[in-house]
Amino acid sequence: MFDIKILSKADTEKLLKMKDVINVVENVYKSKSEDKTCVFPLIFHEFEPGVADMDIKSGWLKEGNIFGLKLVSWFGENVKKDLPSLVGLIVVLDSTTGVPLGILDGAHITGMRTGAAGALGAKYLARPDSETLLLVGAGHVSTFQIAASLLLFPKLKSVFIYDPINYKTAVNKVNTIVETLSNDFGIKVDESLQFKAVEDIKEATGKSDIIITVTPSKKPIIMKEWVKPGTHFSCIGADMSGKEEIDPEIFRDARIFVDDITQCINVGETEIPVSRDIIKKEDIAGEIGDIIAGKTMGRENDEQVTIFDATGIALLDLATAKLALDEAKKISMGSTVNI
User: Fold this and answer.
1) pTM for the full predicted model
2) Sorting pLDDT into bands at 50, 70 and 90, what band is 239?
3) DSSP code of 250?
């Protein structure tokens, strides 16, 4: 009855450009602040604690006339079956008719929109003269963070990469990142930019202007006393209750913005500072879209520590998926099925 476009991971890799995704994510945050979107309640279920779980994030973009969901499952034992442990699927539907428009693999889209989100947090909250970026976590997602950050901060001089589990992972990232940025993102790295794997997180923290955390940690990796005045944090990894990447005391004197207030208090980096009464909900300065929409200011002075807590909202996945669908239509890419 309906023709639905199907896009694979390989399709989205060819179709999406980071610059375009950054623009899409920025517009979604602004629309959310202007009450032109709706985020539906998060659904989470553990099939077996610590072994297998899934979550469903969904929402509605009113101006884009789309709604839909992203379902992500994690099955830790999949590696033994030669399968990826993380599997994601995005479904986009027309909000004027309910007709499904597309089904897309969620892996690459998640990486792209997450990278854009972390970098946009820095764009609106970090000092404009920031020169040093620290990535905490050297996994797959960190590559997207670096790509987006370099587009928004082309004058960066140093990128430190720290992996809390295995230093060699950070070394491997440093050894391959320039080639990856060129081949996968079309980003040519200036020879003056230095990438460095670091083992001493305390020292690296004290030297960094922007810190982006992308780990599944459940205990602080960075302590408050290490942080220099004027540092900006984009906290990306905490997207489930109990996850924690930075010392909750960092929140006490910081200017805090989030992607979604309710979601961040429930499952984000903000959860633990609120639960311990280090801060109250009222201490959150707003959502990142409020800065973009001109409703409030971000950083108030150069000495202020700023935090952007991004749990990830389905609106970003849906808007990025719609961008991929529109681009695919132009060149007749992907498969079409009738249901």
Assistant:
1) 0.95
2) confident
3) G
Residue indicated by tokens 């280090």: 278
Burial of 202 from C-beta contacts in 10 A (0-12 / 13-18 / 19+)? exposed
pLDDT digits (tens, 9 = 90+) for 116-174: 999 999 999 999 999 999 999 999 899 999 999 999 999 999 999 999 999 999 999 99
Residue 20, judged by CB atoms within 10 A of its CB (0-12, 13-18, 19+), counts as middle
3-state SS string over 306-321?
A: EEEECCCCHHHHHHHH
- Note whether 257 and 309 are within 8 A (CB): yes
Residue 38's Cβ-count burial label (10 Å; 0-12, 13-18, 19+) is middle
pLDDT at 79 over 90: no
Give which of 199, 122, 108 is closest to 154, Cα–Cα. 122
| DSSP for residue 188 | P
% of the chain surpassing 90 pLDDT: 91
Q: Which of 5, 32, 70, 322 is catalytic?
A: 70
Tell me if residue 224 is catalytic. Answer: no
CA atoms of 249 and 334, how far apart (whole Å): 48
The residue with tokens 């800065």 is 291
Amino acid at 90: I
- The dihedral through the CA atoms of 158, 12, 68, 77 has a sign that is negative
- Nearest-5° angle of CA 149, CA 155, CA 160? 60
For 32, the token pair is: 């959310």
Tokens 């695919």 appear where? 328
Coil/strand/helix, residue 27: helix
List of domains in the chain:
3-109+315-338 (3.30.1780.10), 125-312 (3.40.50.720)
Is the pLDDT confidence value at 324 over 90? yes
Distance CA 317, CA 92 (A): 9
Residue 284: CB atoms within 10 A of its CB come to 21
Q: Using an 8 Å Cβ cutoff, are 194 and 170 in contact?
A: no
* pLDDT of 240 above 90: no
The one-letter amino acid code at 2 reads F
For the record, the structure tokens of 14 come out as 């060819």
